[in-house]
Amino acid sequence: MSSSNTPSVSVVVIAYNDAVLVGEAVSSALAQGPVVAEVIAVNDASADGTAQVLDELAAVHPRLKVVHRTENSGGCGTPRNDGIAAATSPYVLFLDSDDVLPPGAADALVRAAGEHGAPVTVGACVRRELPLHHDVPWMPGLYTPGDVIERPADRPELVRDTLCVNKLYERAFLDKHGIRFPDGRFVYEDFVFTARVLAAAPRIAVIGDLVYVWHVRRDAAQVSISLDRKDVGNWRSRIEAHREARRIITASSPELGLACQVKFLEYDLRMYLRELGKDPEYQAAWWTLTRDYLTGFDEAAVEAAGERARWIVRLLRATATPPADVERLTRFAAEPPRLLPPYATGPGGQPVWSEELPVVLDGLAGLAMADLPVSVDAEPVGAGRLRVRVRELYGRLAEAGPRTVRLSFVPRSGGQPVLDRPVELCAAADGDGWTAELPFRLTGVAAAGRRQGRRGMQAWGVQVGVEFADGSSLVTSPRPLDGLLHRRALPSSRYGVLLAQPFRTGGGSLALRLAPGAAGALSLVRNRLHRARAGRGSE
């Protein structure tokens, strides 16, 4: 069995115009210890100082080998292929120039690969939102640490993990099956590479160790290819990558092929739909592309998808152009999902999307209360109070009997939520749902954040929990009405003043920025400038 004393891994680092960050990536690979025999950095014809940074590091670290491409490939696949070609170790790990490997990652992967004789070993990955350092687990619950998967077809849900960077590959396995990345300007090359890996049916070992930190810099001057969604070309590229991956996987296993289609409907489709924006030309182009691609999907895949994805597919198929309530559809595709009124019914009282598009919402009656796309509105009422309205949804809530509601504040950078006390719900005077007035004590939230060690500007998500007479419950995020979205300065005995900025997230949910005292106010100003620059860079 391989150990940390046996040099076994070639870490392939790809870089293009990333002189500021590539050194940190390379250093994290070298810091893995003796198990890393070599770090192969492939410079994809950078025009900045990347080449000089890598050459200077190589002069100091004998394990670092630098490959300089003379022409830019236009993507990530070709430089990774160059790295595989230059590798001499039994195992290969991939690392992007703006990410890092956490300590011990390579050793943990190699030990598991040797113990189980696995050509592929997978570990945990987090998406780290910068500059807040908010870690979001990648595909939580997909893998069971310690598991050994004999054949990917035994676990069709594996198609949901399309990353190549959270896995250790046996180089002989890649060579035997001719597994490489698509060359050139091919976006989402991971999709095709991963499909080729799964199609070769390797044994896969699973470890619980964190093996990759994926840095997400949405305010970067040059965003990553996957985040560059300013035109419909990104969606077209994703569809083409999924089409090729689906072809490869289906040829190897019908079960995996079906799962690949379901994954697209439940994940890719909803992710892009909730980011559809308001540009009519983009919406129309996106709608046409999506409808055309979905015509080739198996009906069995549509039926196997979850209710929300299934309804979205049927809406897309029902109209050749985006509907008048397309923004309502984007809110429905968001997390948490919410179906905004009005609520129409078809023949026999069955729930339908709208009178204009009477797509049947089949399966809604069987959804658990916690999974219903309930809509909750929030608006200010007096000082330090919030009125919430819980909307009825085709009779499901009235049947369960809404009793109480309460607010909770969840740190957007991770941590313990702050819970308010529950308040009794009353039937709305106009008969449209249930209402309650809740305390909105933002100074108390800021103080709780400070007790948790938060300094400067604090960012919080707001959630609403509803308890029902039948013992069921649901948690969602309220939809802020416009009257709530005003900055306010609140007196604070501890800070002197607390600046509070309620805002609407991209998914339409209520969130808060709280700036206690002068230091917090300065952080809030810097944050606004940060986001303003990011907005200009993404236009």
TrEMBL record:
A Pfam family the protein falls into: Glycos_transf_2
Keyword Transit peptide in annotation: no
Transmembrane segments: none
InterPro entries attached to this UniProt entry: Glyco_trans_2-like (IPR001173), Nucleotide-diphossugar_trans (IPR029044)
Gene3D superfamilies: Spore Coat Polysaccharide Biosynthesis Protein SpsA, Chain A
GO terms, molecular function: hexosyltransferase activity
SUPFAM superfamilies, A to Z: Nucleotide-diphospho-sugar transferases
Domain Glycosyltransferase 2-like residue range list: 10-171
Keyword annotations from UniProtKB, A to Z: Transferase
Entry protein name: Transferase
Phylogenetic placement of the source organism: Bacteria, Bacillati, Actinomycetota, Actinomycetes, Kitasatosporales
